[in-house]
Design goal:
alpha+beta
Length: 86
Amino acid sequence: MKLYFHRDFEKRYKRLRKNEQKRVQERIVLFRENPFHPILESHSLQGKYAGYRSINVGGDLRTLFKRVGADEYRFVKIGTHSDLYE
């Protein structure tokens, strides 16, 4: 599996607290093992994010991603529910 990280995702990730960054890393490891693991609560989005999916990182933190190939995914944003879905 190949994962790509959009510039916006990387910028937002750097602004997270260390414990949140660690949780993101743990979720990405889990995602690599199984993108639909129940802990991730992966679900498709609608509206302006149609074609994207969201996973739960923990608490109110979410990340948006899109499948871009057979076994390739691009993570595009990370933030709280209200930050992402304004």
